[in-house]
Specification:
Blueprint (H helix, E strand, L loop, with lengths): L2 H12 L1 H8 L11 H14 L4 H15 L9 H29 L1 H4 L5 H18 L3 H21 L7 H15 L3 H15 L1 H13 L1 H21 L13 H11 L3 H4 L4
Helix pairs in contact: 1-2, 1-5, 3-4, 3-8, 4-5, 4-8, 5-8, 7-9, 8-9, 8-10, 9-10, 10-11, 11-13
Length: 268
């Protein structure tokens, strides 16, 4: 890069949203979501994961690169040139690898007609392939953040996602988040995907949870207090935290142990 281009890239790394405001104001993803809006949501997730500058920039630029696929081929050149000239190899490479990761994981949808056992084997093999492909963990984190923002958008706009997207999230993305230990991303991915995959069941559990919200919160506060007292009495210095189980987790517990909601909402 020239000195001018280097300075431009450094400025864009500081705030990629400013760069997108100049270059992607009219671009939208196939979902209909504006590129800048998607980028903002992705960054909110990545900032919580404390990703570095290049990773953060790649996360913001991913929707820009994906939206280019909806632009007629003859009109893409100026967009693609601006991306390559400004951001350089590391960021452009991250963006490209995240897009490739998305293409690989898309195969999960194609395997939807397989039997249960065969699909499980295919999904597990695919998870391992994704982790092996993404030698840079930032690639996986950006992909998960983008998928989470996509589901948030569909939920906010009350739109149905493309067929297979929710199932793919439950089979591939949420387990990847679990293996990486990013629990909050895992829980939100599961609940949003479950909301689309089993809308009636989701609404039913959500309604029951809302009716027991105060009881659940009281239960957790009292349980934390008891544990803290016991630990203190034993001379153990520790911090105790608690959270209500999320909707998908409650449903899995109810189904796996044949429990009624009243028994399961506070179960471990």
């Amino acid at each position: 890069m020239s000195n001018g281009q280097t300075e431009q890239a450094e400025a864009a790394l500081a705030d990629p949203l400013d760069w997108l405001a100049q270059h992607a104001a009219a671009l939208r993803l196939p979902s209909g979501e504006p590129v800048a809006e998607h980028a903002r949501g992705v960054l909110s997730v990545l900032d919580g994961l404390q990703l570095d500058g290049p990773g953060r920039a790649a996360g913001a630029l991913l929707p820009y690169a994906e939206a280019l696929q909806t632009v007629p081929a003859q009109e893409r050149a100026p967009f693609a040139k601006a991306l390559a000239e400004t951001w350089g190899g590391e960021v452009a490479g991250l963006v490209d690898n995240v897009r490739k990761l998305g293409e690989i994981s898309g195969r999960a949808v194609a395997s939807g007609g397989a039997g249960v056992d065969e699909r499980r084997r295919q999904v597990e093999a695919l998870r391992k392939m994704l982790l092996a492909f993404a030698s840079d963990i930032r690639v996986v984190l950006i992909r998960l953040a983008s998928r989470l923002q996509t589901l948030r958008y569909y939920a906010q706009m009350k739109l149905a996602p493309p067929p297979g997207l929710a199932r793919q999230t439950l089979d591939i993305d949420a387990p990847l988040a679990n293996r990486l230990g990013i629990w909050q991303v895992k829980w939100e991915l599961e609940d949003l995907a479950f909301r689309f995959e089993e809308p009636d069941t989701y609404r039913g559990i959500a309604k029951l949870l809302d009716g027991k919200r105060r009881e659940r919160e009281t239960f957790i506060v009292e349980a934390i207090a008891r544990l803290q007292d016991e630990l203190k009495a034993a001379g153990i210095a520790a911090e105790v935290n608690g959270r209500p189980k999320h909707i998908y987790s409650i449903w899995k517990k109810m189904r796996g142990k044949a429990l009624e909601f009243a028994t399961c909402w506070a179960c471990g």
